[in-house]
Write a structure and sequence with these properties.
Blueprint: H1 2-53, H2 58-65, E1 74-77, E2 81-85, E3 92-102, H3 105-113, H4 115-127, H5 131-134, H6 137-157, E4 164-174
Antiparallel strand pairs: 1-3, 2-3, 3-4
Protein name: Flagellar protein FliL
Organism: Thiorhodococcus minor
Pfam families: FliL (PF03748)
Length: 175
């Protein structure tokens, strides 16, 4: 009788191990199926869609995969601007030296070509600034953006390339 109980206990333990092994195999199988489905939908489908968008040539696909190479930055210094600015009390002066950042040599040539028009418009823009506004860092940032937009507008109006990335102050003095 004692032997019979031991045999039954051994069968129960063996059956329990078999259940665990089957459960683990099912989980591994489900993970493998999920990984295969993810690979198919994320990798294979996106490649098919990319080929449908283009003509399917491998050369075009290789170009699309390569990172875009950008031209080096070009820093072009403009002449200094000195203007009277609006302020309560004594007369205030603003002297600004700035550098235009671009990646296009044609923009530099256009800036040199249209210097009189650029100086006229930027002098008017700078003279309209208020001391209290320009005296803050937010005001300076806003002025830099206004100068960039003005330069872009001048070059566009003149029919020149206008790809200006940034306007940097190299000297900013208020008295």
């Amino acid at each position: 009788m004692a032997e019979k109980k031991k045999d039954e206990a051994a069968e129960v333990k063996g059956g329990s191990k078999l259940k665990w092994i089957i459960l683990i195999l099912i989980v591994v199988l489900l993970l493998a199926v999920g990984a295969g489905a993810a690979y198919y939908f994320l990798i294979v489908k996106s490649d098919d869609q990319a080929e449908e968008a283009g003509d399917g040539s491998q050369a075009q696909g290789a170009e699309a995969m390569a990172p875009a190479v950008q031209a080096p930055l070009i820093y072009h210094r403009l002449e200094a601007f000195t203007v009277n600015i609006t302020a309560p009390g004594p007369v205030r002066f603003l002297r600004v030296k700035m550098t235009v950042v671009t990646r296009d040599e044609a923009v530099v040539a256009a800036l040199d070509k249209h210097t009189p028009m650029i100086r006229n418009d930027l002098l008017s823009l700078l003279a309209g600034q208020e001391f209290a506004t320009v005296n803050t860092s937010e005001g300076k940032d806003a002025l830099r953006e206004e100068l960039k937009q003005s330069l872009t507008g001048i070059l566009t109006k003149a029919g020149e390339p206008a790809s200006i990335e940034e306007v940097l102050f190299t000297d900013f003095v208020m008295q």
